[in-house]
Design brief:
The protein is an alpha/beta fold. Among the domains are: 113-212, no CATH class; 231-496, Rossmann fold. Helix content is 38%, strand content 17%. It is built from 15 helices and 17 strands. It has helices at residues 8-34, 36-58, 64-80, 84-99, 113-126, 177-191, 283-294, 327-354, 360-363, 375-383, 393-402, 420-425, 437-444, 488-497, 520-524; strands at residues 152-155, 161-167, 197-202, 207-212, 231-236, 246-250, 253-257, 259-263, 273-277, 299-304, 320-324, 366-371, 404-411, 428-432, 450-451, 460-465, 471-474. The strands form 4 sheets. The chain has an 8-stranded mixed sheet with strand order 11-10-12-13-9-14-16-17, with helices on both faces. A 5-stranded antiparallel sheet has the order 1-2-4-3-15, with helices on one face. Strands 5-8 form a two-stranded antiparallel ribbon. A hairpin with a 5-residue loop joins strand 16 (460-465) and strand 17. Helix 2 (36-58) crosses helix 4 and helix 8 packs parallel to helix 11.
Length: 530
């Protein structure tokens, strides 16, 4: 979302304030240059006075009398000598100027010996990639000078490269993804593993910029985000990638963090989401975060194929239609969701033909969250039942018009069992956990400008919404509050976001197969089906 322009009064006032600050800064610099000798002499007098006080305090008491007599004699001789006071003042000013000079050591220009060795090794490693035998004057050659190809370089406190600009010859195929990937892999290995790098290729200027990225914040817990209806915060990214920030609370502190906002609804271009990751990468955490945000303005239907009870805290809550872990309940709930999508389409079509606004029962968003639907594949094959993914075709195809959103989370090991409708209609993609650049490009549809680290924390990954850029992502901490490993702070943060229960917890759940298909999710609110 583009930032709204400030009112003319505020923008004009801001410009005047900026000009006033610039004038004040210029005047201060000019005054400092003019008064620099006086400042130096004053600093020297202060240092001489401090040295005299230390000398007087270090002198034993029995020797202070002779020392005082000697100083008085010197003052008397100077006062009686011709031009004595003038010469004494000049000598004092010269001593004050000498002692008041700036003693800070000048900053070292250029890299030190260890940094030169690192740049020279990197230059030698790039020779096979940026040179050909036919080049009469190669930029990269054994025994060449690295200063010609590294016009800018910066190092961190540990002596590792933090920023580097690389020149390369014009014949290098920088438009080919494979050629770029080989160079990026080499730079990642030679510049230091365990960090994330951003690579910016300037194809017109034949330059490559390598920048070390700061780690994304890991301490952002679940909380009510300041968003509009239809906006869902998937996580947080780098401040240079988005033009929006969200005010967040961290204990007693408040700070602004750039979010990755996913927009759903009738006017969304990416109405459905697909999340992929390895076990323990945080896919269930992201689905819990989405469910808590969706319950603020809509209804949620959850189908969990893993059967681990990750969403038991949502069962029986207001707005939660069902939390199903069994095959029978999952089939009944998804079949109801398909019929509900069709019912909304019919109601909306009749309202438009009659010239009426959309009915109220179609305005409230419906969210369908599926965690590992591939786990039902073997069960359906054994029982001869329909695959639950086949029931998602109607919500996926017509969900945007019916205000129905589908979110599917799956693991890379079972990604090949995802149905074609799920792959085709989920244009918003998220990858969590470690992944190779080739896998990221194949799943997200575009290469990432950063190289992921080999070891990443839970909830760290990449996101791409439709045809947008690939963004780094850190999911907010939204653990299962019923898990014993959850800290008290995170548990209370999640419990505070849960809506109140719509029925007592000890109420006996009703078997889904005994209810009509159209009414099953609304009346179940159970985490297990019989």
């Amino acid at each position: 979302m583009a930032r709204r322009p400030l009112p003319s009064i505020l923008s004009t006032g801001s410009a005047q304030i900026a000009r006033s600050r610039e004038l004040a800064r210029t005047a201060t610099d000019s005054a400092t240059d003019v008064l620099h000798p006086l400042i130096t002499i004053t600093r020297g007098l202060r240092r001489l006075a401090a040295a005299g006080r230390r000398r007087w305090s270090d002198t034993p008491k029995d020797k202070r009398g002779p020392l005082l007599f000697l100083a008085a004699s010197v003052v008397l001789v100077v006062a009686l000598a011709p031009y004595g006071p003038l010469l004494a003042v000049m000598a004092l000013m010269a001593a004050a100027a000498w002692h008041g000079r700036d003693r800070t050591a000048p900053a070292a220009e250029g890299p030190d010996e260890s940094q030169i060795k690192r740049l020279d090794a990197l230059y030698e490693a790039l020779i096979p990639f940026f040179s050909v035998p036919e080049d009469p004057a190669p930029l990269y050659a054994h025994g060449g000078e690295w200063e010609k190809v590294f016009p800018a370089h910066e190092f961190d406190a540990a002596g590792r490269i933090s920023h580097l600009t690389i020149r390369y010859p014009a014949y290098f195929p920088d438009g080919e993804a494979d050629a770029r990937a080989r160079v990026e892999h080499l730079l990642h290995a030679k510049s230091g593993r365990g960090r994330e790098y951003r690579f910016e290729w300037d194809e017109e200027g034949n330059q490559l910029s390598v920048t070390v990225l700061s780690p994304l914040p890991l301490d952002i817990a679940a909380q009510p985000f300041v968003t509009s209806p239809g906006e869902t915060v998937l996580g947080f990214t780098d401040p240079t990638e988005v033009q929006r920030t969200l005010p967040l609370t961290h204990g007693e502190q408040r700070r602004d963090v750039p979010p990755v906002v996913w927009r759903t609804g009738v006017r969304s271009t990416e109405p459905h989401l697909l999340v992929m990751g390895q076990p323990g990468s945080g896919t269930s955490t992201l689905l819990r975060s989405i469910a808590l945000q969706a319950l603020r303005h809509g209804d949620v239907l959850i189908v969990e194929g893993g059967g681990t009870g990750e969403y038991a805290c949502l069962a029986g809550r207001d707005g939660v239609l069902a939390v199903e872990c069994g095959l029978v309940g999952a089939l009944a709930s998804l079949e109801w969701a398909a019929h509900e999508t069709e019912r909304r389409l019919v109601a909306l079509n009749r309202a438009r033909q009659a010239g009426h606004p959309p009915p109220d029962d179609t305005r409230r968003p419906l969210w369908i969250l599926l965690d590992r639907p591939s786990a039902f594949g073997h069960l359906t094959a054994v029982d001869g039942r329909q695959d639950p993914q086949a029931l998602l075709q109607v919500p996926l195809r017509h969900g945007r018009a019916a205000n129905v959103t589908v979110v599917v989370a799956e693991q890379f090991d079972t990604a090949d069992v995802l149905s074609d409708p799920v792959r085709q209609h989920t244009r918003a993609r998220v990858v969590l956990g470690p992944a190779t650049p080739g896998r990221l490009t194949a799943f997200l549809g575009a290469p990432s400008h950063t190289v992921p680290a080999a070891q990443v924390p839970a909830g760290r990954g990449y996101a791409r919404l439709g045809d947008g850029p690939v963004l780094r992502l850190q999911v907010p901490r939204t653990p299962d509050p019923y898990d014993d490993a959850t800290t008290d702070a995170d548990r209370q943060a999640v419990l505070a976001l849960l809506p109140p229960r719509s029925a007592p917890a000890e109420t006996e759940p009703v078997a889904l197969e005994q209810l009509p298909v159209e009414a099953s999710p609304a009346g179940s609110n159970s985490s297990h089906s019989s």
